[in-house]
Design brief:
alpha/beta; 12-stranded mixed beta sheet; about 40% helix
């Protein structure tokens, strides 16, 4: 009966145990009955014929994870867990373990981390979370708090994620960049800050950087996806082209004073060709229309310094927006400027114009609209 059960279970690993039983009995030291001894060879043969099933890749992976977790030493030191979070800011596992440990120790930071992990990034904040942040938020920033104005500080998953950095009235700006609390930041605005490269080197999770004052301060960064520069001068273009920004997909230049041929060269550089979104304000916007009309960008925005019109290029559609400080009259001068904007280059026959306006009348704009195959006017 026992041997039939072994065969029914079908575990080929049982063959080794039965071989041991057979070996002991052959030496005369076993207690197996004659019936059992007689059936051992057949049972062993049946077990050897069983092909051990192979695990699916997902099963093997999960077993490896479980084995690794069971083999880990449980960390009871908060300092080690904080270090693990800063060393790998993308991993929520260390944050969850830290939250449990801090709650066991009665530290309110543990509850705060747990609440933010539970709601997920961008989820609705609870009153309890807001109360904890109000009471302890500045203390949780640690030594970098003095470089962070209160407005704009955002915590996600229990740690600093978004902030505005200011060097106004701050001494030792470069030294403050060495603190590990920067490691979890993925979005930062500079207001102002000259030690840009030193700062972003302390932010391995950084994705969005805005407020870079000059093109000469543009940093290199492996994960930066979105960059906004306030001023780009002629001499800054080479510096921009030389940066290492393999993940950059969006670039915005508030005031671009570099010659168009230099910028066209930039758009042909490794960084320029990987862009998907590009926006700039230039003194000579009409020269840029043929450049943007031939570029395959998801979104391109061009505006001219001192001009209330700006154009947004998206595929075969142009959106023309007008802002005149709230004035509702569209005068002939504005229409003439817009016409100059558009007639400088032959427009593809399928281009569509959308005029977003705060104006009471369209008188005088019809000649501009007729440049396009189709158009719509949308009050804002």
């Amino acid at each position: 009966q026992a041997l039939r059960m072994v065969i029914a279970i079908g575990d080929p690993r049982s063959a080794a145990a039965l071989e041991h039983v057979a070996a002991v009995n052959e030496k005369g030291g076993g207690s197996a009955t004659g019936v059992l001894r007689g059936n051992l060879p057949q049972t062993q043969s049946s077990l050897r014929a069983i092909v051990e099933p192979s695990l699916m890749s997902e099963q093997a992976y999960m077993l490896d994870v479980i084995e690794g977790r069971l083999g880990q030493v449980v960390v009871k030191d908060p300092a080690e867990l904080f270090a693990a979070v800063y060393a790998n800011p993308d991993d929520d596992g260390s944050r969850a373990v830290l939250a449990d440990l801090l709650q066991e120790q009665g530290d309110p930071r543990g509850e705060f981390i747990a609440l933010q992990l539970a709601r997920g990034r961008g989820g609705k904040k609870s009153r309890r979370e807001a109360a904890l942040l109000k009471e302890h938020g500045r203390a949780w920033l640690g030594p970098i708090a003095r470089a962070l104005p209160k407005a704009g500080v955002v915590f996600e998953r229990g740690f600093l994620a978004n902030c505005r950095v200011s060097a106004r009235g701050l001494s030792g700006a470069e030294a403050i960049c060495s603190h590990r609390e920067w490691a979890t930041v993925d979005e930062v605005e500079l207001d102002p800050w000259d030690q840009v490269q030193t700062l972003v080197d302390a932010m391995p999770a950084l994705r969005v950087l805005t407020g870079v004052d000059r093109g000469q301060h543009i940093p290199s960064h492996p994960r930066l996806e979105e960059l906004q520069i306030k001023f780009l001068l002629e001499d800054d273009v080479d510096h921009l082209c030389a940066r290492s920004l393999p993940s950059l997909r969006s670039l915005s230049i508030t005031y671009c004073y570099a010659a168009i041929h230099r910028m066209v060269k930039f758009l042909s550089s490794p960084i320029g060709t990987q862009l998907r979104r590009f926006a700039l304000n230039v003194p000579d916007a009409e020269e840029w229309i043929p450049v943007f009309s031939t570029r395959k960008l998801e979104r391109a925005v061009i505006s001219q310094t001192g001009n209330p019109w700006w154009l947004r290029f998206e595929g075969d559609r142009i959106t023309c927006s007008y802002y005149d400080g709230g004035h509702t009259h569209l005068g002939p001068q504005i229409v003439a400027e817009l016409r100059t904007y558009l007639v400088c280059v032959p427009l593809p026959s399928n281009w569509h114009l959308t005029v977003e306006r705060e104006i009471a009348t369209l008188e005088g704009i019809i000649p501009v609209l007729n440049l396009f195959a189709s158009y719509t006017v949308e009050p804002t």
